[in-house]
Amino acid sequence: MIDLSDKDDIQRHLLSLSKDGRDDRIIHIGNNDAVLQQNAEERKDDGFINIPFFGKIRRVAHIDMGTVHLLAHKHDADAISYLENNDTQARDRLIRNYPELFKACSGRV
Fold first, then answer.
1. Which end of the chain has fewer CB atoms surrounding its CB within 10 Å, N or C?
2. Model-level pTM greater than 0.70?
3. How far apart, in whole angstroms, are the C-alpha atoms of residue 81 and residue 103?
4. CB proximity list for 28: less than 8 A, separation 6 or greater
5. Looking at residue 44, what is its pLDDT?
6. Backbone angles phi, psi at 96, to 5 degrees
7. DSSP letters for 35-94
8. By C-alpha distance, which of 81, 80, 77, 109 is closest to 96?
9. Tens of pLDDT, residues 70-95
10. H or E segment at 4?
11. Residues 95, 87: contact at Cβ < 8 Å?
């Protein structure tokens, strides 16, 4: 297989060559490496961003509700509690337990 992808492509494109050349094909695979790398880099700093004219402000965690719904569908107790009761402690546990799914300051709440 030959990788035809560029560095920041959202899909990887692989050229699969057959021995006889009749079944050559291009395979497309989802690629979120750039997003995961950016999330990891954001978790390395102190949780503050510098805004011109405002100074430093604290970056807060971002919860994607679609992801919370998927976790609740997989019977995650914290996701269910957050959806049903708006339990902020359950939300914080979700961020701690799944840092790769939710952006948070320095990987912490």
1. N
2. no
3. 20
4. 11, 12, 13
5. 66
6. -70, -40
7. HHHHHHHHHHS-SEEEETTTEEEE---B--HHHHHHHHHTT-HHHHHHHHH--HHHHHHH
8. 109
9. 899 999 999 999 999 988 899 888 87
10. none
11. no
